[in-house]
């Protein structure tokens, strides 16, 4: 089982029309080797990287211009995230490769917008009979999921475990997503487009 060629070209914006970036997860100056240096004792770079299998960082995370959304003119690189049979973390049966924002910024207060783009490849496509938690918060109050639940090959946006919106998850189609989260009001807005199209609510 591989989840191959998912570009997490990401940024986190404060909630205003001229928002400042308060956490920048774009891979413009990041390498898999740098991500692999992160530890609780050495919290460097934009991402926490501790939930993964026993292999080398490059077994699970690869950074390259080949993995960036061509419509994203602000990023030079994207990341290919791989989940395979070695991706067991702490002996769990669920296979996991996770990148988590590493920041002291207040990314869970007020109104914030989480932006990211992703696609899947035709080769080593995700198995629709297995559950894939693609972009989520630990509490799963909002997330993108794929597979296992009768969604017929759709990528689903879910809140509190209920499907709110689904989209075809065809190979080599870029999905541009933003979560507009008001942590005070406990609401989530979902923005989506494909390719170079503008995002809509």
From TrEMBL:
Signal peptide (UniProt feature, chain positions): 1-19
Keyword Signal: yes
Record-linked InterPro entries: GH131_N (IPR041524)
The keyword Zinc is annotated on this UniProt entry: no
Domain of life, per lineage: Eukaryota
Keywords for the protein's UniProt record, in alphabetical order: Signal
Domain Glycoside hydrolase 131 catalytic N-terminal: 21-197
UniProt protein name: Glycoside hydrolase 131 catalytic N-terminal domain-containing protein
């Amino acid at each position: 089982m591989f989840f191959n060629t998912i570009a997490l070209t990401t940024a986190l914006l404060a909630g205003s029309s001229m928002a400042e970036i308060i956490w920048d997860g774009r891979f413009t100056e990041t390498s898999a080797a740098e991500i692999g240096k992160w530890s609780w004792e050495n919290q460097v770079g934009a991402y926490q990287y501790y939930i993964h299998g026993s292999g080398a960082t490059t077994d699970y995370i690869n950074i390259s211009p080949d993995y960036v959304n061509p419509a994203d003119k602000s990023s030079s690189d994207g990341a290919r995230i791989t989940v395979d049979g070695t991706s067991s973390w702490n002996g769990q049966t669920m296979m996991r490769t996770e990148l988590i924002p590493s920041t002291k910024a207040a990314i869970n207060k007020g109104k914030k917008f989480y932006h990211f783009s992703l696609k899947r490849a035709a080769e080593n496509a995700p198995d629709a009979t297995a559950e894939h938690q693609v972009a989520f918060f630990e509490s799963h109050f909002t997330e993108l999921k794929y597979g296992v639940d009768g969604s017929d090959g759709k990528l689903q946006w879910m809140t509190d475990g209920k499907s709110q919106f689904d989209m075809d998850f065809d190979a080599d189609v870029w999905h541009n997503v933003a979560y507009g989260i008001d942590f005070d009001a406990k609401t989530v807005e979902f923005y989506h487009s494909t390719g170079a199209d503008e995002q809509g609510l």
